[in-house]
Amino acid sequence: MNISILYGGTSMEHKISIQTGMAVVGAIKNTYDFQMVQLDHDIDSIIKLLRKSDLVFNALHGGDGENGNIQSLLNLHNITYTGSGPGASKIAMDKNITKLIAQSINIPTPKWILLKRNIVKGMSLLNDKAAKFSYPYVVKPADEGSTFGLTIVLQESELANAIGLATDFSNKIIIEEFIPGREITVGIIGNKTLPIVEIKPKHDVYDFECKYQEGMSEYFVPADLKDSLRNKITEDALRIYNTIGCRHYARVDFRLSDTNEYYLLEIN
After folding, report:
1. Given CA atoms 151, 101, 91, 248 in this order, what sign does their dihedral have?
2. Which parts of the chain are beta strand (E)?
3. pTM of the model
4. Which of 67-71, 135-139, 238-242 has the lowest average pLDDT?
5. Phi-psi bin for 264: left (phi > 0), alpha (psi -120 to 50), beta?
6. Nearest-angstrom CA–CA distance, 135 and 76
7. Number of H helices, E strands in the chain
8. Contact call for residues 183 and 206 (beta carbons, < 8 A)
9. Closest to 152 in 3D by CA, of 72, 190, 206
10. What percent of the chain has pLDDT over 90?
């Protein structure tokens, strides 16, 4: 089998995609023939390269690599690739839509509101909407990864800067209830859940540095949870995965409160 590793791209997560691509090389180099294909603006040339392979491993992060665009292009050219298809990818990249779907199937998710950049015209509007939550709360782009543009707002004076930062990354902004507690995540391969992982970052937030810099987070596998709670979380992780229509693999992120109530954050 010949595998093309598609990596790079133009999103904010370009460098992380390169790391992923190299990690895939390390995993398959002794087993499969492969070529590395960097996503750039010459799409026609890229498609010609990808057609020479039996499978494309999508190592892209964020942007067109996760929002359904590259998936649609590969489908158009009948190229087989790893990961979810266009529809599921587009939904999963949009935290607002993901949360709406979770809510519709009774999976707990933090309270939230959605703001669009073209209607943000003054702090009075923002304050009226944000008053739905008590401090602290989270301000973040609705369709960006790796916590880019995310701020935990502790007081009113920080709101304007948080909104400004989020709008640097997206036209759609989520203001979300902050859930104090533990960071947990459920990996899914095929249609089976993996053991729940608890993540303990060195920072207050599991931010970009904690995600990608060695030694900035500790990972506990399996997470120390009661069986009944573990079963509920994994069942809901698989339910949102299947409801959205994901395939092959995903990671579902939750917050677990101090009273052991869990809340879906997003699916990757």
Report:
1. positive
2. 2-8, 33-39, 55-58, 112-116, 137-141, 151-153, 172-177, 181-189, 192-193, 197-201, 217-220, 249-257, 262-267
3. 0.89
4. 135-139
5. beta
6. 47
7. 9, 13
8. yes
9. 206
10. 70
